[in-house]
Here is the input.
Amino acid sequence: MNLLQIVNLNLQIGSLPILRDVSFSIAPGEIVAVTGESGSGKSMTALAVMQLLPDRAQVTGRILLGETDLTKVGEARMCALRGNEVGMVFQEPMTALNPVKTIGAQVAETILVHGNEDRATAMTRARDMLARVGLPEERFPLTRYPHELSGGQRQRVVIAMAIARRPRLLIADEPTTALDVTTQAQILTLLKDLVAEFGMGLLMITHDLAVVSDLADRIVVMRHGEVVETGETRALFANMTHPYTRALFEASAHIVDLPETKHAPDPILEVREAVRDYPLPRTTLFGPREYHRAVKGVSFTIRKGDRIGLVGESGCGKSTLTRAILGLERLQGGEIRAFGKPVGPGMNPALRSGLQVVFQDPYGSFNPRHKVSRIVTEPYHLIDNAPTGKAREAAVSEALTAVGLQPSDARKYIHEFSGGQRQRIAIARALIIRPELIIFDEAVSALDVSIRAQILDLIADLSRAYSLSYLFISHDLSVVRTITDRVMVMQDGEIVEEGETGRVFGDPQHPYTRTLVAAAPILPDVRHLKEALNVQS
Amino acid sequence: MIRYVLKRTLSLVISLAVASVVIFLVIEVAPGDPAAFMLGLNAQPDTVAALRTELGLDMSNPERYLAWVGGMLTGDFGTSYTYRTPVGEMIADRLWVSLPLALYALALSTLIAFPAGIYAAARRGKPGDMAVMGATQLGVAVPNFWFAMMLVLILSINLRWFSAGGFPGWEVGIFPAMKALTLPAIALALPQAAILARVMRSSLIDILGEDFMRTARAKGLTRRQALWRHGVRNALIPVLTIMGLQFSFLLAGGIIIEQVFFLPGLGRLIFQAISARDLIVVESVVMLLVFSVVLVNFLVDLTYAAVDPRLRNRT
Here is the structure.
């Protein structure tokens, strides 16, 4: 007997088809992962089960929860089912909680809205539930507000809310995507334990195959609103009958062919004992102001030809350090020198032209009213003898061609490009004045795995053509592993380990590096899986 | 929370001190001799000098500033140059009209705007929303004195339900006095309500798109429950800001409405005082208005903290 059975589900918003003939099922106590890239319809499938689709959505097909067809029951009955029989956990723990209500009240609300319990009973059950998800009352009183908790703790509150009435089915939509790897590992363990304890079914939506392989009993692979392959996790990874599944797997495990570089002894960037403080809110009216030290005396040198990674979890100071390196913020101690000259807010523009950056968000980091030609030539403001006329056009064409776009794209606006193409444009912009050092600040973190693989290949190709030097900042160990020669691990404002990339990840010395490496989800070894399955059969 | 209140209080005191210096400098140091103005063009120089001494105009600027501020702190606002009556009494008389009128108008505007804004947000894009938006568009566009004249025309002249103007004083009883303030309060409230309703609507629509509203629905709350339990309180911050600004305007900005209804309010007092160069009155009324603006902002700040826990332990 299936707990949830989706049969030939079709979904259309306006005239736009979103889902086509989606069918799969979940048994009680089973973890089914729906995976795919953005636009595959995996989140819409989850929202269809919750019947929380946009107003103009038209649905055909059946979504059976036990005997009940959720597409037919109507809004009033659906309100009684949501939170009671089906709970849902969302991606963004920072915004998924009401900021003006206490965590106790928010968990208790799920209990109160469905049952006849009085407030005191509901609060007691909320306290038990919060304790179960790892927020015991001694340390996390029910009167806490969401802003007093970290992202991982908030996600625990969201989970407590979703399971407060012990629903038969839990839906988790990218529950760990916004979290650090160590937190991710904890939340995944929690979800797995809860499923076993309550005998719930878990429908897990994720883009991350490595997460899926660890957790799920069965996997549903989706693309463009269709299910392309489904099967028991190990068998699916061992066989991968559909080419898209294989492509997804290969892109996730992508290893770039990084060329050898010629190292030169001259340092391009020297960071010596860099210290960066942030003022904290005043606690007394006239007393001395207190500071949070985000970067605590960091030192390193980048020489020509170096390809260095910087990894660490959110709040470790890597973004603060990046801003200081770019000369956007003043240091409180130590110094940063580029090409022998000091870097800081008042630095010479010519010096800036040697340091270029590619940011994370391909949607927010361009002016939408500028054409690509203008965006790409922006760094020319930094140099005196910028090319004009034909030479400028030629430079734009060359930069665009180098990143795999057409010279004719220069006349287009940024909204005409996809996320991956935009990231190529960002790289073209960084590249056009041939900087000595490029800083990639989480440059591939917002991209789908297949696009991410292409951009990583592009960086390798450019490395070959222009012998790039770069600092690659990321929270994603697997990416840093393939795209850098050396890596620095940052924790709590300090660099705790540094060395050749393969060595640091293969044989980590510092306890923190070991924790990070252990927490990072890994893709299964397909050959190993096949052998294991053969032995079984 | 206590620290937050103390901080806000300190900022209130500093704002008032700075404002008093600015007002004094702008008005007192500005050219134009009130004594000469009061005595007319043909006054003898020694008569003017005598009056200057009597009014305290011959003291040095710092001395006059301290005398003025010291007086206000002890409740002595000085004597009007033109009416020769204590300014404190004049202001108190007028305040007894303007303050109730402003509160009345604010209450009306809130009572209209909150339901209208929430209703429109909940039915975004549907006919109900469009009707409310159309009405508020009209409310914003039409000046309040036109509403005032229409109200007089219909409710006073045709239907004879209200008197067309004047204020009988609070001595005749609360009900007749409030009745006299009703038409002016409505005229003041309508445009304010239109603006407030629009702010409420857009603020609430923003909140309805937030992730936590989806979370609330996933818990099993109906649309309406989610809106009332999670939406409205979060939408209040921008609405409170606008309400604070509106109240300050209502206190003295109703001068045209006061004229239309022959109300002896603060707006008319300041208008008359400016025309007569009665600087001591102008100064005191302006200081009072500044005080009320700063005080209202202080209260709005405290309400923010009551509404949003995130603000309680911030600087």
